[in-house]
Amino acid sequence: MAAALQDINAADFGLEDFSDFADGMPVLEEDEDEELAKSYPAVAVTLGSSHDLGSGTLYVTTRRVIWQAAAGSRRGLYVEFEHINMHAIASDQSAARKPCIYMQLEPSTSAFADTTDAEAEEEGDATPEVRLVPEDSSTLEDLFQTLCDCAALNPDPGDGDDEEDGDFYYNEEEVMAGAQGEQRAAMLDHYDSLLQMPRASELDELVEEDPDRFEDAEGSDQAPAHTDGVPNPMRPEQ
């Protein structure tokens, strides 16, 4: 359903109000070396699963995602990259009119974190969700890449502190959609590590400890050294 920005409590959705516009552009935090990466006109915002705020202009900076409600408006919303848990291209149109960028935000940075479990269940939203819906769907891939590039400039300060996996589980497509080059490489390295064969020295130690461990269960089933006069590559001659 359509919703007026002034009737929305931004903090309920992990966002903050933004009104610092000058000459139609957001005023950036120069002392934080914030720069504009790219802007996208005609991008609608949907909060949760039903609060459609209409179309506006989206500004992606090196630190934040800022949305201006309408051209010339001094009302908007923003979120810092470090408070975006994940983002992905979503083709499900149940909560948006078109394919969009789906984002989950950090609950602990907003009043959403103060919502009780019962209230969250009643409202149907366990995590702050935001959908960015470009009017021109052909810009979706470019917007996604810009978000990825700027997110890489703002690593989670808590990364590396916790070894436990998070509470969210995604399929391969969702995970790889948000993974950057280094993340993809790390994933592949992890998978490779699960398939590592023991080194020759380690294998020799295993054989010495248990000589029968690597023997064929049926000695008579061992392949002959020759088959029809052709050396068997698995049983080379000594």
Automatic annotation (TrEMBL):
<protein>
    <recommendedName>
        <fullName>Chloride conductance regulatory protein ICln</fullName>
    </recommendedName>
</protein>
<dbReference type="GO" id="GO:0045292">
    <property type="term" value="P:mRNA cis splicing, via spliceosome"/>
</dbReference>
<dbReference type="InterPro" id="IPR039924">
    <property type="entry name" value="ICln/Lot5/Saf5"/>
</dbReference>
<feature type="region of interest" description="Disordered">
    <location>
        <begin position="199"/>
        <end position="238"/>
    </location>
</feature>
<dbReference type="InterPro" id="IPR003521">
    <property type="entry name" value="ICln"/>
</dbReference>
<keyword id="KW-0539">Nucleus</keyword>
<keyword id="KW-0963">Cytoplasm</keyword>
<dbReference type="Pfam" id="PF03517">
    <property type="entry name" value="Voldacs"/>
</dbReference>
<dbReference type="GO" id="GO:0034709">
    <property type="term" value="C:methylosome"/>
</dbReference>
<dbReference type="GO" id="GO:0000387">
    <property type="term" value="P:spliceosomal snRNP assembly"/>
</dbReference>
<dbReference type="GO" id="GO:0006884">
    <property type="term" value="P:cell volume homeostasis"/>
</dbReference>
<comment type="similarity">
    <text>Belongs to the pICln (TC 1.A.47) family.</text>
</comment>
<dbReference type="GO" id="GO:0006821">
    <property type="term" value="P:chloride transport"/>
</dbReference>
<dbReference type="GO" id="GO:0005886">
    <property type="term" value="C:plasma membrane"/>
</dbReference>
<dbReference type="InterPro" id="IPR011993">
    <property type="entry name" value="PH-like_dom_sf"/>
</dbReference>
<dbReference type="GO" id="GO:0034715">
    <property type="term" value="C:pICln-Sm protein complex"/>
</dbReference>
<feature type="compositionally biased region" description="Acidic residues">
    <location>
        <begin position="203"/>
        <end position="219"/>
    </location>
</feature>
<dbReference type="GO" id="GO:0005681">
    <property type="term" value="C:spliceosomal complex"/>
</dbReference>
<dbReference type="GO" id="GO:0005829">
    <property type="term" value="C:cytosol"/>
</dbReference>
